[in-house]
Amino acid sequence: MLLHVYDNDLPELLTALAATPPMQRLRAVGMNCGCEYTAFPRFARGRSYSRWVHSLGVGSIVWRFTHDPAQAAAGLLHDVATPTFAHVIDFLRGDYLTQEATEEGTRERIAASPELQSILRAHRLTTDDVADYHRYPIADNDSPRLSADRLEYTLGNAWRYGFLTEDGIEALYADLTVSKNEDGADELCFRTRKQAVRFAETALACARVYVSDEDRCAMQTLCELLRDAIEAGILSPADLDGTEPPLIETIAASPLSERWSAFCAMAHTARAPASSAPPDGRPWRIIPAKKRRIDPLVAGMGRVSSLDAAFAASLAAFLNEPQTEWVLGW
Hints:
mainly alpha; two-stranded antiparallel sheet; 18 helices; 7% strand; globular
């Protein structure tokens, strides 16, 4: 975990919130959206990464740069309603390109928890103070700006994918500050061009993983498996609000067990040119997916895309890549 990098002196508010049942549930909900259960080398060899670790990281980062209890708590709680397999459920709901459906129910989950409510009251906070982290620009803001949420999952995934060492992450984190952006809003930014470019390139490498054929094939396959499990009565929609291990056990003990095993064995992909029909009778899919991007700010200088032509070209090329080919995973 990278929590010791973000802040070694967390307030009791954050540690108490993180220990509640709604947050502890996230220990068994992964950040890699089911891909970690496949045999694709990038994911199979990756370090375990839970939504709980990510959430505590976001809260830690917000606390480090604001020391504001409401903002830090909102950052910590932003994923409290995330379902099992996370953005796979966005796929299930047809939300391929914005991937925001999983945020639904955050306020309700916070308001319904007596443990969360007791802690919030003790710290003179309300549900309204912490239920929408979008209102706090250090916690979250519009892409391609840098926020604590985007920062944490970029650094967390970059470490687990092997794109950055812990020393490299510490150097990036030490270079961060808060400054006003083009619109006069507070934003996490870098002090130096060198570290900003390094982070931007790393974030782009992670973004390519998030829309890789392996990632998209895994998420779509799992989406279809969950859909069929619900339609067959093996799972209920409410099961998606639990944790992953018991859900997996249920599927593995059901008539869909062979499909689950095949999903776990997935280690290869193939691609075929766009056409009106798939190349053959195998389960080829055209799978659009959200392209995440971060164009960080360098204090007093501008965004990396305006300072580094090579990064600007790479980012533009990534955003212009079509997602119209047929892809197959097995």
